[in-house]
Every structure is written in structure tokens, then in C-alpha cells.
Design a protein that fits this description.
Helix content: 40-55%
Radius of gyration: 27 Å
Number of helices: 17
Strand content: 5-15%
Oligomer: single chain
Number of strands: 11
Length: about 525
């Protein structure tokens, strides 16, 4: 198809191409697919995201066949997954590679779009279509892998822009999805500028359009209006050595650090994920200690219980609000669990994963619904647990339900010396900006951080080396962002663009005239 339209054909390549190039192209695809990982924390080279896809796309557009482009999209996707999630290797071992190989398939349609729309010397119209459809194809791969059963939306390309104020403003309009679309569009424009001289006009127009959109959003989209402040104490006990009494020692460390905030008049004290290792109904002594602690500091405590419940089967991870009189009854059970970390998918088939890594020995139980908790004074808190902060729809749901403060309770102690804590902490900025609500990311071992309603950093982060408690002046905000109001419209627009493109291809196929039957061979006389 491309050769007919663009005057380019794989037949024009040297005959030795398949023999000497297939090996290095496969390796180059894996390496090129891994490059965007540098834009995420810990390197956090946010600017690199705007050029990181260029080598991969240049490789794909030069693929001699659609099959080769599909393979290089697959290999590159696998390289991307391994690079962004490499810190999972100690837990998953060979499973990370297997998961990457499976998820890499999601980049095959994107790779075919790159070759189809940017291969050879496309006309200006086709190049302009590529500036829309190729980013949409990338977003489709992000959307599918964002399903919780496939691991969730960790490493979305737009999330690499968590510290860029104009990008955060875009997130308030179309979520992290809109940021991803614009980042990929800039990469597409650079590919055209480098490799397709005849398409420089649409390429420059594409970059200018992204800049104009970003500028318009920055100038005219309203900022959240600050309506008050809440003093939030974040308690980070730090690493506690494993042992039979580690849960008790972690609880005691949380108690000790919380007492240091008593003279600072906090309105809320937040502990990290799994900060309480026993069900409070089964351990009334722990409930009494927490109630006494709440009375001493003059604020309710939001703790996280990771234990088998007395009144229900299985183990839940639950955010529990405790006041001076004990647990208030407000409880949120984690709904979206970490594959392998908190449950093993198809355990009857993959249960052997527990013998080669740190996969969950017993599946955690899932909660049924989000919960918004009421604090004294009327402030409403929407809790999330661990990697639920990666899901834009969950924080949006809490905001629609009336939450004025978002809280994520987390623990990344298993990955303490990796990129994971920084990657996880950065997600709070995106969720805060999308929803126009401040977000507290409280962990057991760091990195704990607080972001304001525009995604801006509030106070210093608590590093992985810290064992401390800190009180933050958190600005509260009113109003509704466009993302909260209209949701994932950028995703729907991308899917609609791809559907329209597919419809055009189908219509062209039906309009194409059938080949005329060939004439019967002429008879020759035989003597």
C-alpha cells in the first residue's frame, strides 16, 4: 500500500537487507522502546519525553514490510515495559519479561500506523493525518494496558510531565491522556522534520498547534480558587527490619512520631499503607492506643489496616479513620489490587510464581465502593491505597462525590533503593491537577509528598532516608476542573479518530474496482 502511494518499495532496498539488518533492528527496537523511561523519575528528564520516541519511530517508518514494523513495535513495547518497571525484577523475576512480552503486543497497531502514515515520502495531507492518528494510536495502547487486570496505568507518557506547570494545566482540562497526546504529537512532528522534507509545513503547524493549545489553556483556563487551609501531619516511620514483631515496632514508631506533632495543631494525621498490622476489632488495645493518640494531638488519625478481619473472611487493606472515641466507622477497603503483589491472576495456573519471586502467598480481598470520609469542621477526605493513585478515574470519582482532600496511603519499602518511590510520589501531582484538589501521598518509608490543587509542591518531600513526621499547610480549593466535569474526553476523541480512519480504509476497499478477468490464452496450432 505504501509503495503505491509514496513511491517507496521494499524491493528498492539491497537484497542483503533481511540477512544483515533483522538482528540489529530487533535490538534497536528494544533499546529505542526503552528510551522514554528516562523521562520518568528517578532521572525525571521531563524534556526528554518530547524526543524519546523519535529513534523508535524512525526505525518503524523504515521497516521494509508491515510484518517487520509489527515485530519492531512489539519488541519496542516490551523494552518500554521492562525499562519503566525494571524495579519489579526482584519481586517478579522472569515474570516481568513474560509480562513485557505480552503487553508489548499493544504497540503493534501504533507501529503499523507509524509505517503507514510516515513511511516513504508521504504527501502533506497524509503527514498531517499522521500527526493526529499516530498519537491516538499511542493513547489506545496506554488505554488498554491501563486496565487493572493488565497492571494498571503506570508509566503513562503524560505522567512524565508531573513537574511542568503548563502540562499540569493541560491535565486539568483533559487528564493525563491529553498530555500524552501532545507529547507524542511533538515526537511525530520531529520525525517529519528529520525524515520527510516535503512534510515540514504540517510538521511545523503541528508543533505550533500544540504550543497554541498549551498557551491558551495556560492563559484562559481558570485556576482552582483557594477556599481555606488544612493542617495535615504526614507520619513516615521509615524502614523497620522484618521479623515476627515488625508490625508492632512499626506501630510504635508511628505512635512516637505522631506525638511530636501535638503542639503543631494538626487537623488530620495520616499514616501510610499497612501501618496497622492487626484488625482493630480483634485488637481493642490498639484501637484504644490510637484513640488516646488522637485525643493527645487533637486531630483524627487516618491509618491503614492490613489484616484479616474478625467479622469477615480474608485479608483487606483498609483506610480507617480514628478519633478520640475510637474508630469513627468510616472505612475504605482497597478496590484495585496489585497483580502478583497482592493477588496472583489465575492462581491455579500461575501460583508457582510464589516460589520464584515475592508474589502474594494469599490473595487480598477487594473493596466494593469508594468512600468519602467527613472530618470535624466539614472537610471531606477521599482515601486511596497504594497504586490506586495511578488511576485517574478513581480520584475523579472521589472528587465528584465531594472530596476536598485526596489522600493516598502507600508503602514502597520493597523497592526502597529503586526508581519506584519517586515514580509513585510523582503521580500525586497529576491527580491533584486533574481534579483541582490537594493530594497527600503518605508512605511508610518514603517518598511522602504533598501537592496543592494545581499540582504544585507543598513543602519539602520526605525522602526514603527519613523517619519523621511533618505538618503541612495544605490549601483547599473549590470549583470543578474541566477534566472532572467532562472526564476522559481526550480518550474518546482519540478512539473516534481511529474509528473514522478505519472506516475510510474500509470504504476505500469496497470502492476499489475488482480486477478484470484475464483473457483466455490464445490457442496455437500444432503440426
Amino acid at each position: 500500500m505504501i509503495s503505491a502511494r509514496n513511491g517507496w518499495s521494499p524491493r528498492s532496498l539491497p537484497r542483503s537487507f533481511p540477512r544483515w539488518s533483522s538482528g540489529w533492528r530487533a535490538a534497536a527496537a528494544v533499546g529505542a522502546g526503552a528510551l522514554p523511561a528516562l523521562a520518568f523519575p528517578a532521572p525525571a528528564l521531563w524534556w526528554f519525553a518530547y524526543v524519546a520516541l523519535v529513534p523508535w519511530m524512525l526505525l518503524l517508518r523504515s521497516a521494509p514490510t508491515g510484518r517487520r514494523a509489527a515485530l519492531e513495535g512489539w519488541f519496542g513495547g516490551a523494552g518500554f515495559i521492562v525499562a519503566v518497571h525494571h524495579w519489579l525484577l526482584p519481586s517478579l523475576h522472569v515474570f516481568l519479561v513474560l509480562i513485557a512480552v505480552l503487553l508489548g503486543v499493544l504497540w503493534i497497531p501504533w507501529a503499523l500506523l507509524v509505517r503507514e502514515l510516515f513511511g516513504g515520502q508521504p504527501a502533506a495531507g497524509r503527514a498531517a493525518a499522521g500527526l493526529v492518528l499516530v498519537p491516538a494510536g499511542w493513547l489506545l495502547s496506554e488505554l488498554v494496558r491501563s486496565w487493572q487486570g493488565l497492571g494498571g496505568p503506570w508509566g503513562l507518557l503524560g505522567a512524565s510531565q508531573w513537574q511542568v506547570p503548563p502540562a499540569l494545566r493541560l491535565a486539568s482540562v483533559g487528564g493525563v491522556w491529553l498530555v500524552s497526546l501532545l507529547v507524542v504529537a511533538v515526537n511525530c512532528a520531529l520525525v517529519l522534520l528529520i525524515a520527510v522534507p516535503g512534510a515540514r509545513i504540517p510538521a511545523v503547524a503541528g508543533v505550533a498547534g500544540c504550543a497554541v493549545l498549551t498557551g491558551a489553556v495556560w492563559l484562559w483556563v481558570p485556576r482552582p480558587e483557594v477556599s481555606g487551609r488544612l493542617r495535615v501531619a504526614v507520619v513516615q516511620p521509615g524502614l523497620v527490619p522484618d521479623g515476627p514483631d515488625s508490625a508492632e515496632r512499626r506501630f510504635a514508631a508511628g505512635e512516637r512520631l505522631t506525638r511530636t506533632t501535638a503542639g503543631q495543631r494538626p487537623d488530620l494525621v495520616v499514616w501510610g499503607e499497612s501501618s496497622v498490622g492487626a484488625d482493630l476489632a480483634a485488637r481493642p488495645d490498639l484501637a484504644r492506643r490510637l484513640a488516646a493518640l488522637s485525643a493527645q494531638v487533637g486531630a483524627p488519625l487516618l491509618v491503614n489496616v492490613d489484616a484479616r478481619g474478625q467479622d469477615r473472611p480474608g485479608i483487606y487493606k483498609s483506610s480507617v479513620l480514628v478519633g478520640p472515641e475510637g474508630p469513627t466507622g468510616a472505612r475504605y477497603d482497597k478496590m484495585r489490587l496489585v497483580p502478583f503483589g497482592e493477588y496472583v491472576p489465575a492462581r491455579s495456573l500461575l501460583g508457582w510464581a510464589t516460589s520464584v519471586g515475592r508474589a502474594a502467598g494469599e490473595d487480598r480481598m477487594r473493596g466494593r465502593a469508594p468512600v468519602v470520609m467527613d472530618l470535624p469542621g466539614g472537610v471531606r477526605v477521599g482515601p486511596l491505597v497504594c497504586f490506586e493513585s495511578a488511576f485517574p478515574d478513581m480520584s475523579r470519582r472521589l472528587t465528584l462525590d465531594g472530596a476536598s482532600l485526596l489522600v493516598a496511603q502507600s508503602s514502597t519499602s520493597t523497592f526502597q533503593n529503586s526508581w519506584a518511590p519517586a515514580q509513585h510520589a510523582s503521580l500525586a501531582a497529576l491527580r491533584a491537577a486533574e481534579d483541582g484538589r490537594p493530594m497527600v501521598h503518605a508512605t511508610l518509608t518514603g517518598i511522602s509528598v504533598v501537592h496543592g490543587p494545581s499540582g504544585e509542591r507543598i513543602g519539602p518531600a520526605l525522602p526514603t532516608s527519613a523517619s519523621t513526621a511533618r505538618v503541612y499547610e495544605v490549601p483547599l480549593a473549590t470549583g470543578t476542573t474541566l477534566y472532572v466535569r467532562f472526564g476522559d474526553w481526550a480518550v474518546y476523541a482519540a478512539v473516534a479518530a481511529l474509528a473514522a480512519y478505519c472506516a475510510v480504509l474500509v470504504a476505500r476497499a469496497f470502492r476499489r474496482p475488482a480486477p478484470e478477468p484475464s483473457s483466455p490464452p490464445a490457442r496455437t496450432a500444432r503440426g
